Amino acid sequence: MKKVFLIFTALLFMGCSSVMKGLKTDKAVKIIFDTDMGNDIDDGLALDMLYKYVEDGKVDLLAITSNKKESGSTEYLDIMNNFYGFPNVPIGKITDGPDSKKGDHFAFNVSQDKSYKRSIKDYDKIPESVDLLRKTLQKHKNNSVVIVAVGFSSNLSRLLDSKPDDISPLTGKELIAKKVKYLCMMAGDFRPERKHSEYNVRLDKQSAQNVFKNWPTKIVTSPFEVGLDIKYPGSSISKDFTYVKKHPLVKGYEAFAKMPYDRQTWDLTSVLYAVEGDGNGKYFSLSSAGNIEVQEDSKTVYEPSAKGNRYYLKVNEEQKKAVANRFLEIITRVPKVLEK
């Protein structure tokens, strides 16, 4: 009888532990999150969604790679990992990345508060993003990893151009072709009437050109116009997070711009599609297959082609409402690590 009790206790402990760590099931989407955390608060909102999906057993978050070179970016990622109960998710940094908003960005501001728990002692010693990408891809099954990229294409381009090394005998392009299921990225603008050079593309045009031209797997991009009119309400930030005195996502939102304000959800749309797809048409519509070219003025051009493997998301008014409601449903949920 005592043996039975001990077995039951062990199983109960394992069950509780899996709630804290997230349930990794065969159906969980294996995701690497590549982000310019610190440039826009929608990266923080998107990361919150990923943690919640991990809790639900829908995502296995393999790694987070920063493509923003300021150290506050990686420190904020470490703070978020610990706050949400996932301190062991590996983080990568970028050296000599593209110029972007410097200094007093929201991630830097939050990282100045030393009361937040951290796991990393020296942010200068964390791996380069391209090395972490190669290491992560190498150890997972073929055609199993989805990369969600919501910033500059710098890390992706460097991965694509990487050479065989101690991590893998494959080139970056070969490794991507073997291990990546598809790339889901926030980039571009495909509106025929008001097309502009979208920020993620413009800040590192050459890398974006390389990725759209040479990436060997399917790419699904969520363009500027998709998240433009789907906004996360500042009123939610003010009233839905009182379950904790100090929340790094809330503090980041408050530091990004003067409250109250509603913020576009560009990066969140890529996360939603990567995990839940188009929702059987509830959330998105998908373009036909084609090719995407980044022009010298940084504008993106889509050309339909039956032989192409580039797609972009589209939304109508009803879908915008459904997506906005889904964002609220996920993000306002109390993280399991904080549930009483």
Protein described:
GO terms for molecular function: hydrolase activity. It holds the Pfam family IU_nuc_hydro. This protein is an alpha/beta fold. It has one domain (25-338): Inosine-uridine Nucleoside N-ribohydrolase, Chain A (Alpha-Beta Complex), CATH 3.90.245. The protein contains 14 helices and 12 strands. Helix 2 (42-55) runs parallel beside helix 13 (266-276), helix 5 crosses helix 6 and helix 6 crosses helix 9. Residues 1-22 have low confidence and may be disordered.
| CA-atom Rg in angstroms | 20 Å
User: Runs with pLDDT <50, length 5+?
Assistant: 1-22
Strand order of the largest sheet: 3-2-1-4-5-6-12-9
Instruction: Please give the alpha-carbon distance between the first and last residues.
Output: 32 Å
Q: The biggest beta sheet, please?
A: 8 strands, mixed
Query: What is the CATH class?
Result: Alpha Beta
**By helix and strand content, what is the structural category?**
alpha/beta
| Mean pLDDT level | 92
CATH architecture label: Alpha-Beta Complex
Could you estimate the helical fraction of the residues in percent?
Answer: 40-55%
